[in-house]
TrEMBL record:
A Pfam family reported for this protein in Swiss-Prot or TrEMBL: ELFV_dehydrog
Site (Important for catalysis): 149
Protein name listed in UniProt: Glutamate dehydrogenase
Stretches assigned to the Glutamate/phenylalanine/leucine/valine/L-tryptophan dehydrogenase C-terminal domain: 186-417
Residues annotated as binding substrate: 73, 97, 353
Coiled coil: none
Any single GO BP term: L-glutamate catabolic process
Keyword annotations from UniProtKB, A to Z: NAD, Nucleotide-binding, Oxidoreductase
Binding site for NAD(+): 193, 224
Gene3D superfamilies according to UniProt: Leucine Dehydrogenase, chain A, domain 1, NAD(P)-binding Rossmann-like Domain
Amino acid sequence: MQSRIFDSQVFNMACRQFDAAAEILDLPMDDRDRTKFPKRCIAVTMPVRMDDGRVEVFEAYRVQHHLSKGPTKGGTRFHPSVTVGEVAALAMWMSWKCALVGLPYGGAKGGVAVDPRQLSLAEKERVSRRYMQELVPFVGPNIDVMAPDMGTDPQTMAWMMDTYSNIVGCSTPAVVTGKPIDIGGSEGRLESTGRGVAYLIKRYLESHGLRPHQATVNIQGFGNVGSHAALGLLGYGCRITGISDISGAIFNPGGIDVHEALRHVEANGTLEGYMEGDRLTNDELLLQKCTVLVPAALERVITVKVARKLKCRFLAEAANGPTTVSADAVLDERGDIEVIPDVLCNSGGVICSYFEWVQDLQSLFWEHDEVLRKLFDILDKARHSVETQKERLGISRRNAALTLGIERVARAKALRGIFP
């Protein structure tokens, strides 16, 4: 089957990854398409009144990949380049990620094609509320649970939760995760993706005979995930030598003061004007020598050309889909770079979103240290299962992670059968 709905570079990349894993698993042909392709896609056009009185119409999407293991789960991004193909690919990856780490979810993803930097706070609130209003028939604590992603944050989730609650007639905190703690959010959720990335990097460094204080780290993308990964790695003793955002990159072999860089971003919005190192482009930062390279921004930044020139020992994929399929083949051929694939590396966010959902449903909340302890326990189990699968089948770490996730989803679908 060839999808006419989702056809795009990033969706086709996710499908190629699936096909390779399905071949390794020898997945029955009857099971492949129904395991691969998303179950449901919602596309809406949203009229929103802007501050100057005019009405602007935005396109928005929500893709729910499968509901065989429970409700779907995934973020919502506000970004001008959002497309239905991109959202579908992200929903697919979320499915494999949830299954890999043992969560009772299918994958989902949503997005509004808008540049949030061009919105006032009031306009962002109206966009957020309108998006949730359009999706109320298709979401809910037992149907599809949203979370923040690029361009959204805890405040966005608060507006969405409030909108849903007002429409259904009762407070329903479990409809979204990543909320402020005061209205049902979880301790540790905000930093969970970045802290999970940092923890896995530490564990892989140690398993390869390296101590964190011996490692240098370059991070492309200094947003929520990248900055918390930097703070976590700094706490473990690593030296952060490169960071970047939309304004460009800073590289300093002697080490960057991460706390000072965060203060600069908080005051100025971006790293522009921060001069504690050499100014580079985002692409140039990828090619600087380091122990660990962390792409924590957009998809498909590690191309064949970049893969051939990388000077890192570990590639830790904090972003979703940062490495193209062709670039993956180059890395496999090189054999000198250990890849920590995205479906494992950045799974901390959805794990802690699961914790928040459980706490909301029970109205019983956990302390910060308990959340992180549970997070690291799940990450350790997932890492062990990936390494076992990698050695057992003699495959790459990415294929090991994907085959585990895909096999678990396919098994759930087979057990439930086809209705009617």
